[in-house]
Amino acid sequence: MNRNNVGSPSNSPSDSPPLQTVGEESGRGERTGEREERDPFLTAMGERVRLLRARRGMTRKTLAAETGLSERHLANLESGVGNASVLVLRQIAATLNCPLAEVIGDETTASAEWFLIRELLHGRDQAALQRARVALAEMFAQAPRDPHRKDRIALIGLRGAGKSTLGRMLAQERKVPFVELTRVIEQLAGCPPAEIHSLYGASAYRRYEHRALEAVIQEHERAVIASPGGLVSESGTFNALLSHCFTVWLQAAPEEHMRRVVAQGDLRPMSGNKEAMDDLKRILAGRSELYGRADMTFDTSEKTLADAYLQLRDRLAARLAAESPDEARAV
After folding, report:
1. Residues 6+ apart with CB under 8 A from 80
2. Which of 53, 195, 208, 328 lies 20 to 30 Å (CA to CA) from residue 19?
3. Is 297 exposed, middle or buried (0-12, 13-18, 19+ CB in 10 A)?
4. What are the pLDDT digits (tens) for 234-251?
5. Residue ranges with strand state E in the chain
6. What range does the domain containing 98 cover?
7. pLDDT tens digits for 49-64?
8. What long-range pairs does 276-279 form, CB within 8 A, spacing at least 24?
9. How many domains does the chain have?
10. Rounded to the nearest 5°, which phi and psi values hold at 293?
11. What is the CATH number of the domain that holds 124?
């Protein structure tokens, strides 16, 4: 089988590399900055805004439209030469759905206890941080651990990684429903996700996304779920997914993502966008730490569809059996 068939198209706008806007990466803000001495605080803040935007798969043009700011203003801000007011930063934080402290600085310096916790975690590797996160989640959980968590397999990752194709195959063999969360979002909203973004904005889409996940969890004790690529950037929704599902990050090289989407006949990622690959790499880099919170990772790059499925199935069965021998079901 052709290895390019691993990926499958999705209707979620969060999964597609954002279209390049005129002047988005033209360096206009950077050229302005070359004539000015950059303040380290403003530079760091600009980098945080760029990272937060990339994690949500938002172009600078989209952020400008939803905040009412100009693209030029945002370009200067992200380049470290824009001395934004507090009100502007509040608009940006609200649109990106994050605390203002996440935009302007590190909130873990706010108290002695935060400082001690930060020092305790400083320098730990990813595995240790994940164990700490799980322990804290269980300590502060408001409800008992979901007994069906390992019976719901949720596939996360960027568009083109194979969530739909491999998810359907996995669900068929496990004899459980296959659920594409974007379809549930469309049913709840009465229109495709792209129209939700266009008519009501990103915040409305995030609300529908959370409602859709809650509906699926309530309806299905066992299922394979393909989630939108941008779901991980919304902490509340992603935490719910982690709590109620065994999550698998399907990885692929950026070139593989793009090749699969284009091979399926969807030319939107390339339409009017010569820098689409840079956009895609930026989104992957911005979300990689979030995707890394998954229970398991699996790279579909350079694999035929048959090989990818068999390897995923076997690795998943081994992980479920190792983590909970009594609860794991045959895959």
Report:
1. 33, 38, 39, 42, 43, 44, 45, 46, 47
2. 208
3. middle
4. 888 999 999 999 999 999
5. 152-156, 178-180, 223-226, 246-251, 296-299
6. 1-331
7. 888 888 888 888 889 9
8. 276/17, 276/19, 276/20, 277/17, 278/25, 279/17, 279/18, 279/20, 279/59
9. 1
10. -75, -5
11. 3.40.50.300
